[in-house]
Structures are given as C-alpha cells and as structure tokens.
Amino acid sequence: MRKGVEMASKTSEEAPTPEEILDDASERMGKSVEFLKRDLNTVRTGRATTALVEHIPADYYGTPTPLSQMSTISAPDAEMILIQPWDRQSLGAIERAIQQSSIGLNPANDGTVIRVPVPPLSQERRQDLVKSLGKKVEDAKVAVRNVRRDAQEKVRGLEKNKDISQDESKRAQDDLQKRTDSHVAGIDSYWAIKVEEMMKV
User: Fold this and answer.
1) What is the pLDDT of residues 118-143, one digit of tens each?
2) 168 and 17 in contact (C-beta within 8 Å)?
3) Among candidate residues 101, 117, 133, the one where a domain is terminated
C-alpha cells in the first residue's frame, strides 16, 4: 500500500521527462502498426496462409478458443489449409467456426483433419480488397499521428511550465516527428508488400 502512495505522490509531483513521453509515444505507435499487421494477416490474398484461420474462435467445451490453441495448422500448398485438432471431439466445432467466420471458405471434415480449400481470387475481387483495406491503412496512420499530437502537447506543456527549455522542447518535438515518420514509413512498406501479395495471380 505504501509503495502505491509513494508512486502516487511521485506522479503528482514530478512531470514526465521528454524521454518518457517519447518512449510512451513510440510504444503506442508500435501497437497501432502491430494491430494493422494482425488485421491484414487475416485477409484472404488468394494464397493459403495459416494466419487466415489461426485467430478464429471455436467452442471448446463451452469456452471460445482460437484454433491455434487447439490444433496444428499448416498450409502445405498455395490452395489448401490443413487443421489437425489435438482433440478429435472438437472437429465439428472447428468446422462450424470456420463456416460462420467472415473468411468465406468452405471446410471439409474427414473425421481426422479439416481441409480448407483456398480458391484463387478474381482480379476484380483483388482490386476491391486493396481498396477496402486501404481504408484500414489510412486509419492506422491517423492513429499514429494522433499519438504524435498527444505527445507534442505534453512536451509543449513541459516547456510552458518551465520544466524544460525551449531548445529541449524543440529537440524532443523533432525526435517525435522522426519516430512518427518511421512508423508511417513502416506502415507504407508493409502495405506495399501486402498489395503485391494480393495482386499476384
């Protein structure tokens, strides 16, 4: 309890340093980028990939459980995903979960493994996907820039309260801009790879 009181008094007395503000901003920007990557990994690109089904939750004895935690998942070729449940009793639940998910694939259960054929996407469907996912990419960039704005306000607050000098404030804001640019460039680079993957026949 005493430790909590000490931390509370430290928080109320001491303003965060520019480094702490920047590190926190970097961490939050990184989370936005990671969230986008996870999101895009679950999208069909016309190639079979285990990421398409890993996070789909299936009912496992009353508990929604991601498929990756109840089976071995592999993609032996570009048009097939294989799911081998560790508990054969869960075959039906896994099959239902895939059918009810938004990925639009039809699993086949042979009593031992579940085969999920991944048919190639039409060119038109690929272009639609690129367009709709581009919105998610823009949202991720907006999230990164919102973190920058928030951190910028905190740094300017330190300068206003005379906790740091004008020079320190400028250095911190320049550093913040570099970190922002780096995360946005990371998003663009990942998106370019994803688009190439989606448009590849």
Assistant:
1) 888 788 888 888 888 899 999 999 99
2) no
3) 117
